[in-house]
Specification:
- There is one protein chain.
- The chain is an alpha/beta fold.
- It has a single domain, classed as Alpha-Beta Barrel (TIM Barrel), CATH 3.20.20.190.
- Helices cover 34% and strands 18% of the residues.
- The protein is built from ten helices and nine strands.
- The protein has an eight-stranded parallel barrel with strand order 1-2-4-5-6-7-8-9, surrounded by five helices.
- Helix 5 packs across helix 6 and helix 9 crosses helix 10.
- About 2% of the residues have low confidence.
C-alpha cells in the first residue's frame, strides 16, 4: 500500500505502534521485524536526535524506563547511545542483544518487508529528517508525523512530496481545526479516548483521513472502524488484523 494512500476509505489500516510492541521491545529491530512478519501494512516508530544530531529510534524523553540509566538521547552522542541495551527490560529475557536503531535502518527494514514506515518525530531538525528520507529516495514511501505542527510545516516547505500526519490529543477545538486546515496534512492522528463522532464528521468533510491511537481493545477498534476511521494504531497488530480483516 502506497504511503500516499495509506489509509484508504474502503478499509481500516492497521498500524503497528512502535512496531509489534506487545510482543517485542518497542522501537527495536525485533519489534519492527515482528510487525513485518504478521503483515502490518504500516509500522510506526519514534525518533529522537542525539547530541551530535544522529536520528535514532527511542520514545521517552529520558533513558531510565528502557535502559535503567540517567540522561536522555539528546544529552548523549551516538557513540554512547548505540551501545545501550534497549531489550532487557522487556518480559521474557529474549531480547538482551537489542541495540538502538538508526532511522535509516528502520526505514529500510520496513520497506524491505513491504510495510510503510510511519516516522514519529520527537526531537531533531526538520532538515535532518528530510535529508535522511531523501538519501534513501523514500520521499513518497514513508509518512512523517508529529505533535509539533510547526515542524511539519517546515518539512512541507523543504519537501512537499513527503506525506504528513498531524498528531494530537485532548479536545479538537476550533483553534486546532483552523491550524490543521491551514497545514493540510495527509491525515490526522488523534488519541482515541479524546476523539468524538463530531470530530470524525469534521475531518471527513474536509477530506482528512483519521487514524486513532493507541487502540488495543478489539471492540473499540471495531466500533471506530464502523464509524469510518481510516487507521487504527495498536500495540497488537496481529490481533487487530484479524479483528478488522485488513489485507
Amino acid at each position: 500500500m502506497a504511503a500516499t494512500n495509506v489509509v484508504a476509505n474502503e478499509e481500516v489500516t492497521v498500524i503497528a505502534h512502535r512496531g509489534a510492541s506487545a510482543d517485542a521491545p518497542e522501537n527495536t529491530r525485533a519489534s519492527i521485524a515482528e510487525a513485518v512478519r504478521v503483515g502490518a501494512p504500516v509500522i510506526e516508530f519514534d525518533v529522537r536526535a542525539t547530541a551530535d544530531g544522529t536520528l535514532v529510534l527511542f520514545h521517552d524523553d529520558n533513558l531510565e524506563r528502557i535502559t535503567g540509566r540517567k540522561g536522555s538521547v539528546e544529552t548523549n552522542d551516538w557513540k554512547v547511545i548505540r551501545e545501550l541495551d534497549v531489550g532487557s527490560w522487556f518480559d521474557g529475557g529474549e531480547f538482551d542483544e537489542e541495540k538502538p536503531m538508526l532511522l535509516a535502518d528502520a526505514i529500510k527494514l520496513c520497506l524491505k518487508g513491504d510495510s510503510t514506515p510511519l516516522i514519529e518525530h520527537k526531537t531533531g531538525e526538520a532538515a535532518n529528517y528530510v535529508k535522511a528520507i531523501q538519501d534513501l529516495n523514500a520521499g513518497e514511501k514513508v509518512i512523517l508525523q508529529s505533535f509539533n505542527w510547526d515542524f511539519l510545516a517546515e518539512v512541507q516547505s523543504l519537501d512537499s512530496s513527503i506525506p504528513l500526519g498531524a498528531l494530537g490529543s485532548k479536545e479538537l477545538d476550533a483553534s486546532r481545526k483552523t491550524k490543521i486546515s491551514k497545514l493540510k496534512p495527509d491525515w490526522v492522528g488523534w488519541k482515541f479516548s479524546d476523539f468524538r463522532d463530531a470530530d470524525l464528521k469534521w475531518a471527513k468533510s474536509r477530506g482528512f483521513e483519521v487514524a486513532l491511537w493507541t487502540v488495543n481493545d478489539a471492540k473499540i477498534a471495531s466500533s471506530w472502524a464502523e464509524k469510518g476511521v481510516s487507521g487504527i494504531i495498536t500495540d497488537k497488530p496481529a490481533q487487530m488484523l484479524q479483528v478488522l480483516g485488513d489485507d
